[in-house]
Design a protein that fits this description.
Elements: E1 6-11, H1 15-22, E2 26-31, H2 43-56, E3 59-63, H3 67-77, E4 84-85, E5 90-91, E6 96-97, E7 102-103, E8 108-109, E9 114-115, E10 120-121, E11 126-127, E12 132-133, E13 138-139, E14 144-145, E15 150-151, E16 156-157, E17 162-163, E18 168-169, E19 174-175, E20 180-181, E21 189-192, E22 197-201
Parallel strand pairs: 1-2, 1-3, 4-7, 5-8, 6-9, 7-10, 8-11, 9-12, 10-13, 11-14, 12-15, 13-16, 14-17, 15-18, 16-19, 17-20, 19-21
Antiparallel strand pairs: 21-22
Bound molecules: coenzyme A (COA).
Length: 202
């Protein structure tokens, strides 16, 4: 038995494996959205993850993009969910990251920023100073979040979008890829474009 950290990954991010193994830990199990017969809504599947967790004494990482699934998985497994920080990320000592987060390579998180529970921060994202990411969110690759931005619960921030400074994105809102968000975004809305405009309510 070695003391290396063991993880079960729930999600479709195959590139995460290499990063975990390069960091000296081991992926002992993988549940994919593409796995035949695996339905996240079916309690048996949660049981399957729990059984594997017990047998291997591993921590569970949630890395799926869908907010409802993230919340559902968190609800069922939270006592075994952990956070993963890529060794290739750069997180300020004055930043605060909660449980259940996955921080990918080349992420920067600045001083006095806070990332709450069960948030996926994907490759190359920059979150600058004094931001609040309120949990269950997905921040897609290369999004640039400037200072003092707040992102609501369960939001989805599309790839390569630029947000801020000092704006708020509402709970359960979606920002499309490549958007430039200069003003507050209401709850449960879909926005995109440069400058981003609300296109519809969700
Ligand atoms: C905004 C988004 C959610 C799609 O919304 P949608 O309502 O399904 O939009 P549609 O695909 O029906 O497109 C509607 C119109 O908006 C345009 N559009 C869609 N997304 C856009 C965006 N981000 N910026 C500018 N225009 C966009 C489409 O080209 C289309 O234009 P048309 O009416 O002239 O044909 C999606 O385009 C998006 O940006 N997703 C995020 C993707 C991402 O970052 N994934 C992470 C991968 S790791």
């Amino acid at each position: 038995m070695n003391s290396r950290e063991r993880y079960i990954v729930v999600g479709s991010d195959l590139d995460l494996f290499d990063d975990i193994e390069r960091a000296g830990s081991v992926v002992v199990g993988y549940f994919s959205l593409r796995d035949k017969g695996f339905d996240y809504e079916y309690l048996g599947s949660h049981e399957k993850i729990n059984t594997m967790q017990r047998k291997t004494n591993s921590k569970i990482l949630i890395a799926v993009d869908d907010t409802n699934l993230r919340q559902n998985l968190w609800k069922h497994h939270k006592e075994h969910v952990t956070s993963y920080f890529s060794p290739f990320s750069n997180i300020s000592e004055k930043a605060q990251i909660s449980l259940g987060c996955v921080i990918y390579p080349n992420v920067f998180i600045g001083p006095l920023s806070r990332v709450d529970i069960n948030t996926k921060v994907s490759v190359g994202v920059q979150i600058h100073h004094e931001c609040v990411i309120r949990g269950h969110s997905v921040i897609c690759p290369r999004a640039l979040i400037l200072g003092r931005v707040t992102i609501g619960l369960g939001a989805f921030i599309g790839s390569a979008s630029i947000l801020g400074p000092a704006i708020e994105v509402g709970d359960q809102s979606v920002v499309g890829m490549g958007s430039v968000v200069t003003k507050n975004v209401p709850d449960k809305s879909l926005s995109f474009g440069s400058p981003a405009k609300v296109k519809r309510r969700l």
